[in-house]
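Provenance

Sequences were taken from public entries as deposited. Structures were produced by running a predictor on each sequence independently, with no templates supplied. The record for Metallophosphoesterase from Micromonospora haikouensis is shown for reference.
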Amino acid sequence: MTDDRTPIDGPAPLDEPDDERAFARTARRPRSIDPPELGFTPRRPVPWLAPLLLISTGLRTLLAMLFGAYLDKRELQNSLEARIERQVGPDGGLWLDYVADLGDGFDATYSVAYLLAQPELTVDGHRLPRAQTLVMGGDQVYPSASYEAYEDRCKGPYQAALPVTPPERPTLFAVPGNHDWYDGLTAFLRLFVRSRDRHFGGWGTGQSRSYFAVELPADWWLLGLDDQSGSYLDDPQLTYFDTVAKRLGPDSRVILAVPAPTWVKAVDHPTAYDSIDYFIRTIVAPTGARVRLLVSGDLHHYARYAGPDRQLVTCGSGGAYLYPTHHLPERIEVPPRDTLSRRASRSLPYDLAATFPDRARSRRYGWGVFARLPRRNPGFGTLLGTVHTLLMLAMAGVAAGRAGGTEQRLLSVPLVAMLLVTMLGAVFFAKPPSASGKRHVRHWILGVTHGLAQVALAAAGTWAWLSVPLHDWPWPLPVAAAAVVYGPLIGFLSTELVAAYLLVAAAFGVNVNELFAGQGIDDAKAFLRMRIDPDGTLTVYPVAVDRVARDWRLNPDGSPTASWLTPKEPLTPRLAEPPIVLEP
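Predicted structure for Metallophosphoesterase:
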């Protein structure tokens, strides 16, 4: 190692030809926001309820579940170098950043990247210098892990935020989340685990596998796990951490970065926490070291659970749509008492200490679904309008006694089939979980109720349609009128009915994610800035942004390390809660 702040084979000196060319590319500042000038295409937020995206995401999730073991590249990583990194700042301490769930729409992702890249932030009176180490905690890209998506939604914005490596040469480590796994980790490994051009914007990439261990000041350690979307920890990974454990001792303290907050998910699925508990119980605990901080993304908010000797922090607010906080339990037991693991650690209580946004604001965001759902997802409304128009034509044909007529045969489908499609669509939308879940029946009941409500809306729409003279026009004029007049109106009404269903279902813990994914809320973003003092004190500053920037101006004449784009209205970060101090 040439420098305590630089990984063993980290950012190479700029006298090498490849790096000279890379430096020239990044040092040339863009003169417009055209994609050829920026080197990437700024993307709009993902419309999560778009019909084609719903289908493709469902297929990817199904394929990942069915064939994840066959696509698992972790076993192959055994052939890669098993490095243990070291990160120490010039004063013997270290500034460390954590951000997760970041590669979505440009405005939100770049707002957070811009703050991370600034030489210093002043937040509620605290001066917070730019971190020497950045950890990305999972789901670096949405909706799928293609190389193009990484470039446009993640690497490009971070390149624009910090184009050239600053003097302190910050280093980046990344944990893969479930979206990073959709292609079997191929694009993730190309970006974060490589032997050449080890740069991610102005950050040097520091890991040699999809998991990592970093020695920090004062016998603190940062361990990043890859559990392949919650499946298991592979043998090469456990062997790697066995080697790491030989350097831990009773005075060691551990920050454990994991892909998902399974301590919360275990409330409904008791086995969710088993992999983390196994790791702590078999790798860390025998050394006498203590895991003082567990940190994760995956849920797109900030939440902290405080326990006797450990903090459990979720901070998945790096750019993806907001996830609510008002459904979080006030107290959890970790590991849960009803886990199936016979050798689980002793269960301890953890209390919810802080959230961002707070519960009241989270509830208000939920009520915004009526306005945001149709505006953010026009394709979803079009799909509902099409289904309802076909259902109305089928009902109208039967009600008017023309079930065998030309109109019914050519441009509608049998009534029973359309009713079946409507009911099955509503039930599958409720996503009944496996039998191991605790709310299996609620999903079915709410899904069926939602389906019946959509059928009732269709019946009311059919009655209204038969009350106007349009249905008596010669064929095919009624069909054309239905498509032009009835379709858009019923599409909007059925979308609002879905919004009402989501609001009610979320109160019972069902379709909570869809309630907020359908709104695509850009605001309420956060990241962690942490300081390890030379004496071993760890201070966590949860930096929050109530409103992200939406208008940007070019900064063509700035210094090489200055951000390419700056917000027209200043971003005003604040602390989501007072700093959390962990004493040695």
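The longest helix spans residues 477-507.
The chain has two domains: 85-357+524-582, 368-518.
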